[in-house]
Amino acid sequence: MIPAAVFASGSGSNAEAIVEESHLPCTIELLVCDKPAAPVISRAKHWNIEVFVCDPKTFPNKQAYEQAILTKLREKQIEWIFLAGYMRLIGPTLLEAYPERILNIHPSLLPAFAGKDAIGQALTAGVKVSGVTIHFVDAGMDTGSIIAQEAVRVLETDTNQTLHQRIQAIEHRLYPETIRYILTERERNDSNATSVDQRIR
């Protein structure tokens, strides 16, 4: 099984969906949280997953903050990172250590409504369709290569809460499905590349 980490800043509902999915080719070995009072921390205790609370306010800069996280990830031999409501841009320290091995989930059909409050943005814009996007993480804000998307209708009667509930229901299914697909394909490709390399040798 592939050792992986989940990063979260809030309630942790998407983190829970990943942790409780029994058919993933990975095990969640670590929860990284940047908010010492985040509800996800207490939830993680029920999952029997180690929690690493890393408060950026206690570091002189982003590089030092991410270096502390990277040290912990290497200690746990983490191979993949899944962002699940982690409200910080990933910087060069982690991006260089995990190229195309960091996934994020976003509550819109990117590139529409990137950044914070995507659901509020969609309601303000008056769109008829929003949705969910899962993508690789790069240096930008929700700009990485898109892996999967699923649309959600926006009803005339929708509030932020009602639309959020329907989008979240999709998130909790689509994120584990996409993680399973990506990890399975990546491991298969890595295995095929190794076999070719061995034949060449």
Automatic annotation (TrEMBL):
<dbReference type="GO" id="GO:0005829">
    <property type="term" value="C:cytosol"/>
</dbReference>
<feature type="domain" description="Formyl transferase N-terminal">
    <location>
        <begin position="5"/>
        <end position="179"/>
    </location>
</feature>
<dbReference type="GO" id="GO:0006189">
    <property type="term" value="P:'de novo' IMP biosynthetic process"/>
</dbReference>
<comment type="function">
    <text>Catalyzes the transfer of a formyl group from 10-formyltetrahydrofolate to 5-phospho-ribosyl-glycinamide (GAR), producing 5-phospho-ribosyl-N-formylglycinamide (FGAR) and tetrahydrofolate.</text>
</comment>
<dbReference type="InterPro" id="IPR036477">
    <property type="entry name" value="Formyl_transf_N_sf"/>
</dbReference>
<keyword id="KW-0658">Purine biosynthesis</keyword>
<dbReference type="InterPro" id="IPR002376">
    <property type="entry name" value="Formyl_transf_N"/>
</dbReference>
<comment type="similarity">
    <text>Belongs to the GART family.</text>
</comment>
<feature type="site" description="Raises pKa of active site His">
    <location>
        <position position="142"/>
    </location>
</feature>
<comment type="pathway">
    <text>Purine metabolism; IMP biosynthesis via de novo pathway; N(2)-formyl-N(1)-(5-phospho-D-ribosyl)glycinamide from N(1)-(5-phospho-D-ribosyl)glycinamide (10-formyl THF route): step 1/1.</text>
</comment>
<feature type="binding site">
    <location>
        <position position="104"/>
    </location>
    <ligand>
        <name>(6R)-10-formyltetrahydrofolate</name>
    </ligand>
</feature>
<dbReference type="Pfam" id="PF00551">
    <property type="entry name" value="Formyl_trans_N"/>
</dbReference>
<keyword id="KW-0808">Transferase</keyword>
<dbReference type="InterPro" id="IPR004607">
    <property type="entry name" value="GART"/>
</dbReference>
<feature type="active site" description="Proton donor">
    <location>
        <position position="106"/>
    </location>
</feature>
<feature type="binding site">
    <location>
        <begin position="87"/>
        <end position="90"/>
    </location>
    <ligand>
        <name>(6R)-10-formyltetrahydrofolate</name>
    </ligand>
</feature>
<feature type="binding site">
    <location>
        <begin position="12"/>
        <end position="14"/>
    </location>
    <ligand>
        <name>N(1)-(5-phospho-beta-D-ribosyl)glycinamide</name>
    </ligand>
</feature>
<feature type="binding site">
    <location>
        <position position="62"/>
    </location>
    <ligand>
        <name>(6R)-10-formyltetrahydrofolate</name>
    </ligand>
</feature>
<dbReference type="InterPro" id="IPR001555">
    <property type="entry name" value="GART_AS"/>
</dbReference>
<dbReference type="GO" id="GO:0004644">
    <property type="term" value="F:phosphoribosylglycinamide formyltransferase activity"/>
</dbReference>
<protein>
    <recommendedName>
        <fullName>Phosphoribosylglycinamide formyltransferase</fullName>
        <ecNumber>2.1.2.2</ecNumber>
    </recommendedName>
</protein>
